[in-house]
Structure formats: structure tokens, C-alpha cells
Amino acid sequence: MVRMNMIKKKTKELKLVKDERGQWIISAGFLVSVSIVILALLLNQAMMGGYQSSVAILEFPKHEIRELVQETHREVTIAAMKANKEASMDAINLTFNSTMSNYTNSVEHLYAAHGQMAYVNVSSLTFNDTKIEKVNVTILFSDGVTTCTFDPEIIEIPRNTMHVDSIDMWSLEWPPANYTIFTKAKIVDASNAAVATATVYLNTTLPDSTNVSSSRVTDAINGTVLFWYGLTDTTGIYTSTVTDVSLLGWIYDPASNVETSDSIQVP
Q1: Are strands 117-128 and 131-142 parallel, antiparallel or unpaired?
Q2: What span, in angstroms and rounded, lies between the C-alpha atoms of 228 and 24?
Q3: What domains appear along the chain, each with residue ranges and CATH number?
Q4: What is the DSSP letter of 194?
Q5: What gap in Å lies between CA 150 and CA 153, rounded to an integer?
Q6: Residue 149: is it exposed, middle or buried by C-beta count within 10 angstroms (0-12/13-18/19+)?
Q7: What is the pLDDT of residues 92-119, one digit of tens each?
Q8: Gap between the Cα atoms of 182 and 226, Å rounded
Q9: 76 in Cβ contact with 135 (< 8 Å)
Q10: pLDDT, mean of residues 37-57
Q11: How far apart are CA 66 and CA 133, in angstroms?
Q12: Starting from the edge strand earliest in sequence, which strands make up the sheet with 161-174, in order?
């Protein structure tokens, strides 16, 4: 009896081992699980890669680099235009180097205070007619992660130009029937800043078509110059025209004149 039970039990166990229907289900479930895990890992890697790329883009100091380059261009241009107003080559070099030395020291200290490094160095100057025309500059920026170098950065310097910003005329009567004719002109540079000590040449046409030429120098405060004609008892139309403006190291640009002449009726 016991033997029969043992035989039956072994027969039952052999049937379960030979029944492969459950094994396919288990195998399919295992493969699906592994596939899900692999997909999750790939998705996680993709997300991490995108996150790291986004962080790298956000952390790239593009604004600091752009600001350093733009500010250097501006300061070099201002320094060169200021130096070009000097009369001699020695004075031009001295003025330019002094201005740039102050700027480079300020830049180094400013960026160092923010844990960054900035370096600006003028490598060479190109002159044209004893005036600075081009400046080659080396610009370096580093924040410990990103290092960017511009070498050389070529900066072209505009010439110092000036033009007539305004010209006005009026008369003053001195009884009996005598007049003084006044003409006031203002000279400015390309940025509309007043130009001092420029010699302005003026031609005044009288009512009888006679031309009277004169020249005077602009003041140091607002770049204006005042001319006068008379006393005269001649009435009619007076016209004043700026014929030329001169200043050492500067170019008169009549095409930029806001006004070149003015007229008044006397009385």
C-alpha cells in the first residue's frame, strides 16, 4: 500500500515536470520585465544627457564674454580717439597707453572679485597719417570651467570728425538806425559732443552782395563761437555761411552738418 502511494506520488511529480505550459508564461514574464528595465535605463540615460546638456548651456558664460568684448571695443575706441587729439606721436602713445593701463587694471580686479579671470592686452597699433587707425588686442576670459581667447581682436578706430550742429543769426539795433549783426555757430563731433578750440571760418554776405570773411575759435565749454559785424546802417538780407572748420588731429565733415548757413532781414 505504501509502495503504491509512493509510485503514484512520483508519477504525479513527473507529470508536473513534463508540463511546460507554466514555463512559457514564466519565461515571457521574465523577458517583459527585463525589457522594461532596459527601456527604463535607456530613458534615464537620455534624460540625464539632456539635463547635463541643458546645465552646460545655462552655465556657459556667454553674457560675461560678450560684455567683456563689447566693453573692450568701446574703451579702446574712446582711448584711441582721445589720444588722436594730441599733436605728436609721443603724446598720442602716452595718452593711449595711460588710458588702457587704467582700463586693464580695472577689468582684472573687477572679474577677480567675481571669481573669474579677465585679461586684456594691446599687442600692436597701426597708424595712418600719425593717427591710430587700428588696434590689435588680446582678450582672455576664464571662470575655471570655460576659457575663451580672442587673439587678435582687431578694432578699427574712427577718425575724429566734426561738423556744424547749428548756426543762428540775429541783429542788435543802436539808435539812430545802426545795427550789429551776430552769428553764432556750434561745432560737435560724431557723438554730438562739443568740440573745443576748433577754428571756424565764416563768410558773411552783405545786402549789397559784398562778402566779409572772418575766423574765430570755439569755446571750451559748449563748442560755440560768436561772430559779429558792424556797426552798420545798411539794411537788407545778411547771410552767414560756415566755409571751413579746422583743428589739429580732426577732420571737418561738412556732409554731416545739421546747418551750414543762416540768413536774417535787417531791420
Answers
A1: antiparallel
A2: 114
A3: 62-156 (no CATH), 161-266 (2.60.40.1930)
A4: B
A5: 6
A6: exposed
A7: 999 999 999 999 999 999 999 988 999 9
A8: 7
A9: yes
A10: 60
A11: 23
A12: 224-232, 178-189, 161-174, 251-252
Q: Which three cell numbers stand for residue 150?
A: 580672442
| Burial letters 167-179, b for 16+ CB under 10 A, else e | bebebeeeeeeeb
Contacts of 117 (CB under 8 A, 6+ apart): 108, 111, 140, 141, 142, 143
C-alpha cell at 230: 558792424
In the chain, the amino acid numbered 191 is S
- C-alpha cell of residue 207: 545786402
For the stretch 236-264, pLDDT in tens is 999 999 999 998 778 888 989 999 999 99
For cell 552769428, what's the residue?
183
Q: 3-class SS at 180? A: strand
Please count the other Cβ atoms lying within 10 Å of the Cβ belonging to residue 111. Answer: 18
The three cell numbers of residue 68 are 567683456
Residue 37: φ, ψ to 5°:
-65, -45
Is 249 within 8 Å of 81 (Cβ atoms)? no
pTM (predicted TM-score) = 0.50
Q: What is the DSSP letter of 115?
A: T
Whether the per-residue pLDDT at 2 is higher than 70: the answer is no
pLDDT digits (tens, 9 = 90+) for 112-138: 998 899 999 999 999 987 889 899 999
- Write the DSSP symbol of residue 221: T
Distance CA 210, CA 215 (A): 17
Q: Is the peptide bond before 152 cis (omega within 30 degrees of 0)?
A: yes
Q: 3-class DSSP state for residue 21? A: helix
